[in-house]
Specification:
This protein has helices at 13-33, 40-47, 53-58, 61-91, 98-111, 121-132, 136-160, 166-188, 209-225. It is mostly helical. It has two domains: 15-59, Orthogonal Bundle (Arc Repressor Mutant, subunit A), CATH 1.10.10; 72-225, Tetracycline Repressor, domain 2 (Orthogonal Bundle), CATH 1.10.357.10. Helix 4 (61-91) packs parallel to helix 7 (136-160) and helix 7 (136-160) packs across helix 8 (166-188). The chain starts with 12 loop residues before the first helix and ends with a helix. Residues 1-11 have low confidence and may be disordered.
Amino acid sequence: MKTASAPTSHSSPVTEDTRAALMDAAERLFAENGLEGASVREITRTARANLGSVNYHFGTKDGLILAVFSRRLKPINERRIAMLDALEAKNADRPLPLEEVLDAFLRPMIEQQGSGLEDGQAFTRLMSRVFQEPNPQVAQLVCEQFGTIVKRINTALLKAVPTLPPEEVFWRISFLFGSAHHAIDAWSRFDTNPFARIPGSPVPRTLDREALLQRLIVYAAAGIRGTST
């Protein structure tokens, strides 16, 4: 993957509509076919844009990839940091309530599910694909987007659970990331989820976003508080 050049800013309604359509199409096609599998030609055809529009708005395909991730991750992580700032200010020198730390991490991600293209489902699948099909350049991009928030969550978890060994925090955060993305993906595709239709098993009821969030918090809190062996 080549280094992405900075996109040129264009502010007219027509160009902004085209830019958004390209990111919507790219997000969906990257989720379905992978970053390498989705071609610029296919993206522009889906967005009903001309072939040169990716270069015009993003410089390169890599610039488009950067824009797709930044569009979703930047506001999520900004909100996470704002919620953690408020939580730490409220509790001063006291231990942080673990459930509220988890709420600050999970709520912005789950609320994204009602914020745009297919209620954010395509990006959830794209993030799952990134974890399953690692790409060094994309991994670097994700690390840059998540660097600050991971450090903040790390510090907050140690304040919430002072008995947690620092060397264990990496694994607890990794499990938190993975279980949250899997749960959101399963929830977003509940109607076609085969595990919800196993004969002889209790039929689960559908959940709204708040119910999903609260179940994830309960699940994650138990795992983070658990004693390591």
